[in-house]
Amino acid sequence: MTLSFPAALAAAAMLVAVFAVAVSTAVYIRLRQLSAIVFAGQRARPPRYPVRLRPGPGDGAALVALLDGTCPLCREVWEAVAAACEEGRSANVRIVFVFADAEAAGRYPDASFAETMAGADLWSEVYEGYTPVLALVDHEGALLDRRYVRPGAPPPETVATLLTRAHRLSTALSKE
């Protein structure tokens, strides 16, 4: 059996193509493995929230709000939390506003319904590159829920959802 020149050329081209696909697949898989190793720590951040942001005794959870001093959407989140607290929906939930510095915190009214914390050390522990962020934290510091509040998303609904979840957790803890 003899192969004509065009048939041999086609067979060789097919082998080269199969080899190229195999090499490309192997390189892609290895790059995915390397990126998983390099970026593994960033995906898990933050593994635990600091003790000073965790709920206190009798609280089911802590609602931590990371806010910026100049962000209009952050102001809407602050107002939504304030309204929910005034309506009594924050029972058994520790409310904490976190700012990068005292200047940013000073742009908001004093909040008798919540704690305000500001400082570069605390900010660097919890800031993930975006504000506003609402996080629901348990007694162990584990993140129960996190919401990046985006433009167009109604902050009152987001706050209500998180407070409802925190209230359910508080009720479950009180039954234990």
In words, what does this structure look like?
The chain has 176 residues and is of the alpha/beta class. Helix content is 49%, strand content 16%. It has a five-stranded mixed beta sheet.
SSE class: alpha/beta
Overall average residue pLDDT: 85
N-to-C series of helices and strands: HEHEHEHEEH
The backbone outline, from C-alpha atoms, is elongated
**CATH fold call of the largest domain:** Glutaredoxin
Ends apart, CA distance between termini: 82 Å
Can you count the helices?
5
Strand content: 15-25%
CATH architecture of the largest domain: 3-Layer(aba) Sandwich
Name the CATH homologous superfamily of the largest domain.
Answer: Glutaredoxin
Domain module tally: 2
List low-confidence stretches: 41-46
